[in-house]
Amino acid sequence: MGCNLRDLVVPHPIDLSDLRGERVAVDVFLNAYQFLTSLTGPDGRPLSHDGRVTAHLYGFLDRASSLIAHGIDPVFIFDGRPHDLKRETLKDRRDRKNVARRKWEAAVEVNDMASAKKLGPQIAEYTPNMVEDTKRLFDLMGVTWVDAPMEAEGAAAVLCGRGEVSAVASQDWDTLLYGSPTMIRNLTAHGTRKFGRVLSAERIELDET
Fold first, then answer.
1. β-bridge mates for residue 41, sequence order
2. In whole angstroms, what is the distance from residue 182 CA to residue 161 CA?
3. Residue 3: what pLDDT?
4. Handedness of CA 168, 171, 175, 181 (dihedral sign)
5. Distance separating alpha carbons of residues 60 and 157, to the nearest angstrom
6. How many CB atoms lie within 10 A of CB 28?
7. Which of 4, 63, 126, 204 could cross-link with 32 by S-S, CB 3.0 to 4.6 Å?
8. pLDDT band at 1 (very low <50, low <70, confident <90, very high)
9. Shortest CA distance to 163 belongs to which of 59, 75, 44, 97?
10. 166 in a structural domain
11. CATH code for position 173
12. How many whole angstroms separate alpha carbon 206 and alpha carbon 56?
């Protein structure tokens, strides 16, 4: 996350039923990497079937279905091309991933599955084929998706500013910096436990920040 605005915002705890009938923008890539790094096999690689990664599909099927079951209309936003200013950051990420991949391969070679399990999430990739699979899944589910010209968070903030969605679901404070009038934190984690406490979804209004 780019910054921490926790001390500057006024979070309002909400129940998911409070969002019934609302359209909420959701960043695809943040969720995809969560699925690819958590739904893994013994070697730390994402769940797959016949050699084809399926972890992201299981994750999005469950997540979209859950939101719809609560009466929420999700609009999933895909990242477009990265801004030129992020070129060095992306290169650093690729370099770190290549180092992790070599370590993972070495661990697998000696059957050190404990180390491989830890290293697997560090080399997870959301490939163009996976992106197309996800869009196909959303089409089959009748779920709305949008290709952002650049950053998904920025596009989501614009949609919220135009009133095309009522809020942006995100854990990233950059959502407010992009100018989103309303942000929902912990939307998909609502009711789960973290560090000994039960998480609650929170609505945050930019004009109260």
1. none
2. 9
3. 64
4. positive
5. 21
6. 23
7. 126
8. very low
9. 75
10. yes
11. 3.40.50.1010
12. 31
Q: Using alpha carbons only, how large is the chain's radius of gyration in Å?
A: 18
Indicate the pTM of the whole model: 0.89
Domain housing 101: 6-208
Residue 68 counted as domain residue: yes
Residue 140 to residues 13, 25, 55, 79, 178, Cα–Cα distance (Å): 33, 19, 17, 21, 31
How many domains does the structure of the chain reveal?
1
CB within 8 Å of 198: residues ≥ 6 apart:
191, 192
Question: Residues of the chain with pLDDT > 90: what percent?
Answer: 80
- Give the model confidence (pLDDT) of 13-63 as tens digits: 999 999 999 999 999 999 999 999 999 999 999 999 998 999 999 999 999
SS3 content of the chain, % helix, strand, coil (to 5): 50, 20, 30
Mean pLDDT over 96-116 rounds to 95
3-class SS of residue 49: strand
Cα separation, 129 vs 151, whole angstroms: 19
| Domain assignment of residue 1, yes or no | no
Q: Decide if 124 is inside a domain.
A: yes
Give the confidence band of 189 by pLDDT, cuts at 50, 70, 90. confident
